[in-house]
Structure formats: C-alpha cells, structure tokens
Amino acid sequence: MAVADQVSFVGASRKLGLSATTVTRTIQSLETTLGLFLFNRTTRSVHLTTEGAEFLSRCRAAISDLDDAVAIARGAGAAEPQGVLSITAPVVFGRLHVLPVVTGLLNSWPKLTVRLFLTDRVVHLVEVEIDLAIRIAPPQDSALKMQKIGEVRKVFVASPAYLAQHKEPQSLEDLAAHSLIDIDECATGHSEWRIGGKNVPSVRISPRLSVNSVDAALAAAKDGLGITRALSYQNHDFIEKGQLRRVLEDIPTSALPVFMLFPSRERQTVNVRMFLTAMKERFMTGNF
C-alpha cells in the first residue's frame, strides 16, 4: 500500500521508516508468494500492474476493517477530533455546504485543523495528500472507500422579471422560443440539455449566452437574461430570496448522487467520521 501510494520504493521506505532494501525485498517476497507481479518497474517509475491494482483494492478494504476493529476496541469512537483534515470538493458546493460544516467543526473542536481545497476538477487523493473528497457523480475509482451522503438534481430557473415578460415554458420544446443560458466548460454556444439518463429525452439548444461558470450563469439569469439549468443546491439561495424561480417543475430529472470518498481510514479516522456525520445532518435539512 505504501509503495502504491508513494509511487516509489524510496518514498515508501521513508513513510514507513524502513530501508529501501527492506521494502524492495518485502515486495519481492510477496510477489513470489502470490505468483504474480504487483508492480511494473523501470529505472524512473513504479506503477501497479492490473493484478496489483486489484490486490491493492482488497488490501485497503482488509486493513480498513482491521483499523476499525482496533479503533472500536480502544474506544476511539469517542476520541476528540484533532490534527489536520484535508478535504476537496467542487467550488460552489464547497463554498455553500462544505465550508459551513468545516467552520462548525472548527468552532467545536479546538485541536482540529482543516485544509479545504475547492476545485471542479477531479484530483488524485493520494498524490495531493487529501484525506477525503466530495464528488457529485458516481465515482469511477473502485480502489477508494466511499459513502453516499445525499442527492442533488438539475433544475431550470429564471428570474421573476424575465418570466413576467415571456410566456413561461410548459415543455422542453417550449425552450426553443426562450433566451437560454448554458453552463459549458468550453462555452461553445451549442449544447444538449439531457433531462435524465442515457435513454431519456434531451433537447438540443442554441443558447444566447454560454459561460463556463455556474456563478456567472446564475448571475445572468438573476439579471433577467433568460432561463438556465443548474444543480439544485447551486440556485437554492437565489430561489429562497425570490431572485430566481423554478420552471418546468413537472418534468422529472434524474438524481445525481453525492459521495464522500477517501483512500483509506489509516489516518484521522475520528476526523473523517465526524465530518461525514456533519455532512449527512446538513443534507437532512433539505437545502440541496
């Protein structure tokens, strides 16, 4: 596990406080016992083989279960959160919902320190030394531990001023007659709004405005430019304040799961558990 995490025998030896020779011989002995190679080695790099990646995933699960058993036996479930907890989350979701949880935990636990990394790109948890990640999509990395903490949906919104001047759409086809604001990473000006999964209807749109920022799209909608579509948590506050209003509410949209992922529970188990509990409680408020 250490060699895979560090992508290096030398790095693993430093992490474990062992000599590089000891680490190398231990891996060789394990490979001999298993009858397969766990790593592809070159003079410059060390990478897992396909068999090695599968073996690593099962080792993480086994070690995690063992750590849990030890923690329960020692009564660690009641231990005080302390040390550094590193978290990554999408920018808007992190600002609106992760940051309030973090500040609440910091106010409650004086020995706890948090490093919050907000980005909309997927980061490799081990490479950047992140303890856990919030992701809004089905996770792709089976080697990570994961827990679902809730769901969000994409909804259509427009300002009351815009809707007062234009006939409110009653169907997806009605969108063609409206000014649309699209959130598109490349801001290409042509997009497709898919309402659910692969086998559900979608509508091809030619937006009047394409932006690569959720905040910008919602600001434009709030100013009366037109209709946009964003995740429910992203526009919740605007709707609560009466600055935006939902449209096409009768059209069902698919739910996007919100997962918390972490590479292992070797470190700061109490911190991770405390954060997970707090995030689940926040989802129970229904403000997503």
From TrEMBL:
Identification of the protein by name: LysR family transcriptional regulator
Keywords: DNA-binding, Transcription, Transcription regulation
GO terms assigned for molecular function: DNA-binding transcription factor activity; sequence-specific DNA binding
PANTHER family recorded: HTH-TYPE TRANSCRIPTIONAL ACTIVATOR TTDR-RELATED, HTH-TYPE TRANSCRIPTIONAL REGULATOR
Superkingdom as given in the UniProt entry: Bacteria
InterPro entries, sorted: LysR-type_TF_proteobact-type, LysR_HTH_N, LysR_subst-bd, WH-like_DNA-bd_sf, WH_DNA-bd_sf
Keyword Transcription regulation carried by entry: yes
Pfam families according to UniProt: HTH_1, LysR_substrate
Domain named HTH lysR-type: residues: 1-49
Similarity remark: Belongs to the LysR transcriptional regulatory family.
BP GO terms, sorted: DNA-templated transcription
